[in-house]
Design brief:
Structural class: alpha+beta
Low-confidence stretches: none
Order of helices and strands: HEEHEEEH
Largest sheet: 5 strands, antiparallel
Mean pLDDT: 94
Number of domains: 1
Strand order of the largest sheet: 1-2-3-4-5
C-alpha cells in the first residue's frame, strides 16, 4: 500500500490506537460490530479482545488476550478490502 496508509500500517504493526476517516483502531473492544456477520460478531463478543481494527464501523481484525489474530474472511467494499489487506500484512 502507498504512503496514504503509512500511518495505519505503522500503528497496526505496533498495536496502537489511531484514527483516519475510514480505518481506525483501538486498544480494547468496541461495542458495535457494524456489518460483521452474526457468527463473527458472536466470536468477537465472546473473545477477550485486546486490540481492534475497524473499517468504518465494522471490526475487520482483532487480537485476543491469548495473542490469537482474528481476521474474518468476509467480503466488503473495495475500500474495506484494502483495509483488510493492511491488517493481514501488519497485524
Amino acid at each position: 500500500m502507498g504512503s496514504r496508509h503509512a500511518k495505519a500500517e505503522k500503528a497496526i504493526a505496533n498495536r496502537e490506537a489511531f484514527r483516519t476517516p475510514s480505518i481506525h483502531a483501538i486498544v480494547g473492544k468496541v461495542h458495535s460490530t457494524g456489518m460483521l456477520p452474526t457468527d463473527w460478531a458472536g466470536k468477537y463478543a465472546f473473545d477477550d479482545v485486546e486490540y481492534t481494527v475497524m473499517s468504518y464501523d465494522t471490526p475487520i481484525g482483532w487480537v485476543n488476550n491469548g495473542g490469537e489474530i482474528v481476521i474474518p474472511p468476509v467480503k466488503y467494499s473495495q475500500t474495506t478490502t484494502q483495509h483488510q489487506y493492511i491488517v493481514k500484512h501488519n497485524l
